[in-house]
Automatic annotation (TrEMBL):
Keywords, comma-separated and alphabetical: Cytoplasm, Transferase
Family: Belongs to the sulfotransferase 1 family.
Native organism: Heterocephalus glaber (Naked mole rat)
Transmembrane segments: none
InterPro entries in the cross-refs: P-loop_NTPase (IPR027417), Sulfotransferase_dom (IPR000863)
Region (Disordered): 47-74
Pfam families, per the entry: Sulfotransfer_1 (PF00685)
Sulfotransferase domain span: 7-44, 80-271
Signal peptide per UniProt: none
Name of the protein this chain belongs to: Sulfotransferase
Amino acid sequence: MTCSSAPTPGTTWVSEILDMIYQGGDLEKCCRDPIYLRVPFLESGGPGTPSAAQDAPACGPAAPDSAGSEGEGEAGQVPRVVYVARNAKDVAVSYYYFCKMAKLHPDPCTWDSFLEKFMDSKGGPDCSEEGLSEGRSANLRLYCCLLSPSLVSYGSRYQHVQAWWELSCTHPVLCLFYEDMKEDPKRETEKILEFVGCSLPAETVDLIVQYTSFQEMRKNPMTDSTTLDPEHVDHTVSPFMRKGMVGDWKSTFTVAQNEHFDAHYAEKMASCSLPFRWQL
């Protein structure tokens, strides 16, 4: 099982829900390790960091091809993927503050300049075998793309969500939306349960919903990233679990930026039927 997303649409939230499902709602088991170790990332790795190809029941996020969408998984089965997406304006604001906090990322500088990068990113630098020196691993190629100072990591958000949306028509991909999860977390958790083929008692489902709420996860050191080395993240700049709201983009976008973004979004997403909501 893979949990996939571009950055900051609710990846940690869905990862925690999936882990709680696989652990049968056992809170003690879900506190065994930080979420980034329980649900490792396919496109990152290093000393002391598990590969997502190891024994974790879920992993994420990923691009469509890195999740094995064109191949077969274990026992000849096509991998099942839970994909989570969020309206692009809230993603832009959330990711801006994430990049300010996460020292792995280049300094996003001003909000104005970051927003332009976010809108104009086309897919990152050339991360192919030909584009980088021979012998580098896939993880390292992706890592090099991640650190490009002139682009937003993972390339175009428009391409990312459209690719997964189209893939969900032909492959076992469950598309979830952050706004729907905020509106009715129990309903969306039940969708995940059905998708992974798991049945849990109603009281266990309620427990999962309770302990994966923003308020609970924000005070849980296993999900709020406070276990990470301060050399890598600076929570004094911005907390990892910042606001968890739908429509908070309004507090950051200017009127001119909003109009500019709307025109750009309409052009880039003209052929896509994705039902994003900008507020609840």
